[in-house]
Amino acid sequence: MTPITTDRLISTADVRRALIERREIALLDVRDEAAFAEAHPLFAASLPLDRLAGEVFDRIPRRTTPIAVYDDGEQLAPDAIQQLSALGYASVAMLDGGLDGWRRSGGEIFRDVNVPSKAFGELVEATRHTPSLSAEELKALLDAHADVVVLDARRFDEYRTMSIPGGISVPGAELVYRVGELAPRPETLVVVNCAGRTRSIIGAQSLVNAGIPNRVAALRNGTIGWKLAGLTLDRDQSRRFVPVSKERVERARESARAVATRAGVGRADRTALSAWLADDSRTLYRFDVRTPEEFAAGHLAGFRSAPGGQLVQETDVFAPVRGARILLVDSDGVRANMTASWLAQMAWEVYVLEDGLNGGELVVEAVPPGRTSTPTASPAKAYKRPYEGTDNPVSAMQAYLDWEYGLVAQLERDGTHGFRVLQ
Fold first, then answer.
1. Residue 390 burial by CB count (10 A; 0-12/13-18/19+): exposed, middle or buried?
2. In Å, how far are 82, 144, 151, 229, 423 from 136, measured between CA atoms?
3. What is the pLDDT of residues 9-46, one digit of tens each?
4. Which of 221, 268, 275, 288 could form a disulfide with 351 if both were Cys (CB 3.0 to 4.6 A apart)?
5. Three-state secondary structure call for residue 324
């Protein structure tokens, strides 16, 4: 692939053109995460200068990937370019004018983190009118001992911090795979929650898309909405999903594959994988979307652990090279297909490895390589997420929700995303 620029400056117009045309580019914000969360372009990825050398090889695996680096006048970008060049990256440029240049040229400015996924989630709800319940409505059902099951789509560690009373931890990509065991009666109402909005919406809509017989609803505004309603959250719970029967796996596999096919997900075999690995003109991300525990017990060499729900939630963390090719694998044909269906709608070129884990030698490692969530920065440099933890001010939580409601309008103004929602 021809580099987008051959000098050390790249314009906002050139970056936008690459994004719209789906040419590979990584737009890196090298400031601290807290500063990044205040203002950045939609597809910028946070990679602070002091973490760059330790993370960049995982996050930008191809050394000839076009990279645009920026700061907001702190003079961090020149150091980042020097580091990247020393590490062997051959097509690195500085965004002309930095963040202020992007703003002055008319580029849309977003705040918070994982914004592409959150904006996409809002677009899904606005387009599909994903069913939802308020905290008060769910509390009344629980108090009445109604036939309802609450499934928490976040990571297990987030669930442990705070959860809806009676909720069960079923991280996003596990929902379609495991819901049949957790709600075997079609009459059972299935409510999906997260801390805020995105994973509730995507989780609930996943179940709708897969055509499960149950009525499904997202918990409107998640645990934030629960707290804003003056209700009490559980702490330190350990309720988790259960094993899935062979018959239910087969039904879920058929449903997931059908959804993925409708979304335009590709299929790849070992021959295609070998060809892609030999192609130095395209970035290939290889992700295993099972649970971290399954990954650690045995996975295909070269694949990184990216539990499906978090991969959809944190595309900017796992895959900062917009326009790259993504290959997913699982052991069951459910989780990879459902995850891929969402990535395809987010305008990624995404494939599922047809034979799954079969036919390949599995690697066992005590500590999975790669990232499964955003790294922890020092308190002074990290962005305090208003939807995590239990001590956030009510004003911060409400302001966060108000911001999310405006993301669809921001997407329209930005015009670089290419998102589409499966009907």
1. exposed
2. 54, 12, 17, 7, 30
3. 999 999 999 999 999 999 999 999 999 999 999 999 99
4. 268
5. coil
pTM of the model: 0.94
Angle between helices 198-210 and 174-182 (to 10 degrees): 70
CATH homologous superfamily for the domain 1-111: Rhodanese-like domain (3.40.250.10)
Place of tokens 């970008």: 77
The CATH architecture of the domain made up of 120-247 is 3-Layer(aba) Sandwich (3.40)
CA atoms within 13 A on the CB side of 223: 27
Both structure tokens of 320: 């900062």
Domains of the chain, residue spans: 1-111, 120-247, 256-363
3-state SS assignment for residue 320: coil
Nearest Cα neighbor of 336 from 290, 299, 372 is: 290
The fold adopted by the segment(s) 256-363 is: Oxidized Rhodanese; domain 1 (3.40.250)
User: Is 258 within 8 Å of 171 (Cβ atoms)?
Assistant: no
Cα separations (Å) of 141 from 15, 138, 190, 266? 50, 5, 12, 41
